[in-house]
Amino acid sequence: MTTFASGTAAFDSKDRITRDALTVLQPGFTGTTAPDWLLRRLGEGLASVGVFGRNIVSAEQLAALTAQLRAERDDVLVAVDEEGGDVTRLEVRTGSSFPGNHALGAVDDPELTRQVALELGRRLAACGVNFNWAPSADVNSNSANPVIGVRSFGADQELVARHTAAYVTGLQAAGVAACTKHFPGHGDTAVDSHLAVPRIDATADLLHARELVPFRAAIAAGTRAVMSAHILVPALDPSRPGTLSHRVLTDLLRGELGYDGLIVTDGIEMQAIAATYGIEHGTVLAVAAGADAICVGGGLSDDETVRRLRDALVAAVRSGELPEERLADAARRVRELASWTSTAPVAHPDPARTDIGLVAARRALHVTRVDPYLPPTEPLFVASLTPETNIAVGTETPWGVSAELARLLPGTESGSFAGEDAGHAAIVAAGERRVVAVVRDEHRHPWMSRALDTLLTARPDTIVVEMGLPQTAPRGALHIATHGAARVCGVAAAEVIAGVSA
To answer: Which residues on adjacent β-strands are paired with residue 465?
Structure first.
C-alpha cells in the first residue's frame, strides 16, 4: 500500500480506496423503485446495480427505475440475469418470449441465435438495462446437472462455442454488454453451487478441449465480461474454487486465454462461497484472485451487505492482504465497461422481429407421432409432472402448455402432480378427458418416469411434452421435445397438439 507524507494525501488515498471498494460491488435491492440508500451509494462511488425478478413489474416500470438510477449516476451499469428461456427476469411473471439456449442449440442456426440475442438486447436496452449476466457458455456434458441443463446450448463444445459467439455478437450489437458464464465451465457438475461447492475432476487436457472452447469463442467475439463459477477444478487449482483462484482467473483467463475485459463473480452469497469462506472474506479473496466486480443481491439485498463488503475490501487493503493496485485495477475495469455502455448505440425493439422468439421455439420442436395423429377437438386435461426447480430458475415463472391449450381448446383443465402417486392422481383428476402429460427432465426423476408409465398404461393415447433435456426415448401417442420450458416453448407445443398451423 502506498504511504503519504501529508495528512491531506492520506485522506485522499483513504477516500479513493473507499470509492474503489464501492465501485467493484454489484448489489441488488428490494422494491420496484430505488431505495434512498442505493441512490446515496451511487453518489459515493457505487457504479453497478443488479435488478432481479422482484424488482420488475413491467417494461415501463423498469424503464422508470433505471431512469431513477441514472438521475443519480448517468453511467451506472444496470445488470440483470436475463438468459431468456427458463431463466428470465424481464418476464418473470409471464414466462419468456425467447426459448432459451438449449432450444437454440437444437436448431443449430447461429444466425437465428444472433437475431434472438439482438432482439432480447433491444428489449433490455429499451428498459435502460445495459449489462446482461448472459450467455451461459457451459458445455452440458453431464445430463444429471441440476443447475445448467437447458440453460446450455448443448453437450458438444463446438456447437456451444458457435452459439455463444453468436449470442455475444447479437446482444452487444444492441448496446448491452454480454457476460459469458460460468468460467471455467459449470456443465460437468452434479451439484448446484447455490447450495454447495461442485467439483469437476476432469484432466487439464479435457478442460482445454471441452470446457474452455466456448470461452475462447466468446473472447474472440469480444465479450465485454466473463462471470466466474464457484466450482473446484483440481486440475486447475486443487484448493480454491474458480471465483477465488488466482490460477483460474489471472493465470488462465487473463494470461493463457488473453482476456482483458471485466471479470465478475457469480453471486457471492451463494453457499459455495458464503458457507465456506463467508461473504466478506470471499469478496476479498475474489478481488485478490483477479475478479473485478462482485455480484451480490440475489439473496442479500440491503445497505448493510454493501457496507460490510466495502469495509472488508478497505480493511484488506490497509492490512496488506489485498494490494491497493489490484483494487484500483478492478475499479478501473468497471468504469471502462460503464464508459462503453454509455457510448454504445442503443437499438430499440424491431417490430418486424418481435416474434423471433416464437419462430425459434417452433423450429426447436422435435415431434414424434404415432400415425395417424388426429388433433383433439374436445377439452383436454394437462397433467404437469412437476419437479423442484433450481434456484437460478426460481418458482415465480409459469411454465407448461396448459394456458395455451385452454385458449386453443376451451374447457381444458390442468393440475400439478409430484411424487410416487403422481400417475394415479393424474388419472383420477383427468376423468374421461384425454391426458397431456408435461414433464421436465424425466431422466433425472425416477418418480416422474414411473408416473408416466402409469399414465401410458392406463391411457395409451396420452400426449407427452418434454420441456427439459430430452434424454429418454419418445413415447406416447404424440411426443414433443421443446428443449426448454419458456412460455414460447409451451405456445409452440400447444400449436402442434391442437393441430394449429403456425
So the answer is: 438, 480
Q: What is the pLDDT of residues 202-243, one digit of tens each?
A: 999 999 999 999 999 999 999 999 999 999 999 999 999 999
pLDDT tens profile 248-270: 999 999 999 999 999 999 999 99
Helical H segments across 174-239, by residue range? 204-209, 212-220
Residues labelled as active-site residues: 194, 266
| The three grid cell numbers given for residue 469, joined into one nine-digit string | 433435456
* Strands annotated E in 249-392: 262-265, 294-295, 366-369, 381-385
pTM more than 0.90: yes
Cβ-count burial 289-299 (b if 16+ within 10 Å, e if not):
bbbbbbbbbbb
pLDDT value of position 391: 59
CA distances from 123 to 85, 181, 202, 315, 339 (A): 15, 21, 39, 40, 21
In 116-183 the beta strands, taken as DSSP E runs, fall at: 131-132, 177-183
Closest-CA residue to 437 (of 408, 471, 474): 474
Task: Report which of 476, 430, 331, 395 is spatially closest to residue 86, judged by C-alpha positions.
Answer: 395
H helices present in 409-445, as ranges: 422-430
Find residue 164's DSSP bridge partners.
Answer: none
Amino acid, single-letter form, for residue 460: P
The residue whose grid cell reads 432450444 is 103
Residue with cell 388426429: 374
pLDDT at residue 477 in the model: 94
Phi-psi region of 258 (alpha: psi -120 to 50; beta: other; left: phi over 0): left
Is 107 in contact with 492 (CB distance < 8 Å)?
no
**Peptide bond preceding 135 in cis form (omega within 30 of 0):** yes
Angle between helices 7-23 and 324-343 (to 10 degrees): 60
Residue 158 host element (H or E):
helix 157-173
